[in-house]
Recover the amino acids of this structure.
């Protein structure tokens, strides 16, 4: 019995969506330019959040040591940069998907901070940068007391 090919438009739409996602990832999401070093870089993916007292930035940089990552804070600008080592050169890869080469990420911090008290911890390939907020932006809690209290 002959096999019939039935056209499935949903299958073609999924394939088109995957192609568009890849196009936008390559064009906008993963590459950047490091103006200080005049070179193309991979854009370092980060998670960032704020607590009442500090800003916290986390980045995965597997395969690197703490001394391979450079962090600078100049005014309101935070930059994290480094270089992922090149893959082996004396092998024929069947699949090679891990990125290598320079990476960087620059953020503009919209909150006054205390850069002199910033701490960076590197553990299990995850960089955690904690930057305390300046006193003037920390929330102040004012206790409300009754008329007869002192």
């Amino acid at each position: 019995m002959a096999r019939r090919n039935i056209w499935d438009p949903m299958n073609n739409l999924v394939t088109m969506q995957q192609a568009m996602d890849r196009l936008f990832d390559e064009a906008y999401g993963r590459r950047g330019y490091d103006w200080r070093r005049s070179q193309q870089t991979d854009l370092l993916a980060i998670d960032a959040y704020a607590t009442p007292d500090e800003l916290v930035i986390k980045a995965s940089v597997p395969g690197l040591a703490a001394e391979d990552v450079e962090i600078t804070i100049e005014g309101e600008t935070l930059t994290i940069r480094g270089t992922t080592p090149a893959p082996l050169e004396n092998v024929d890869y069947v699949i090679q998907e891990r990125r290598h080469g320079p990476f960087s990420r620059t953020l503009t911090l919209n909150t006054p901070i205390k850069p002199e008290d910033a701490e960076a911890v590197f553990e299990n390939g995850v960089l955690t940068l904690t930057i305390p907020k300046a006193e003037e932006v920390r929330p102040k809690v004012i206790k409300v007391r009754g008329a007869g209290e002192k």
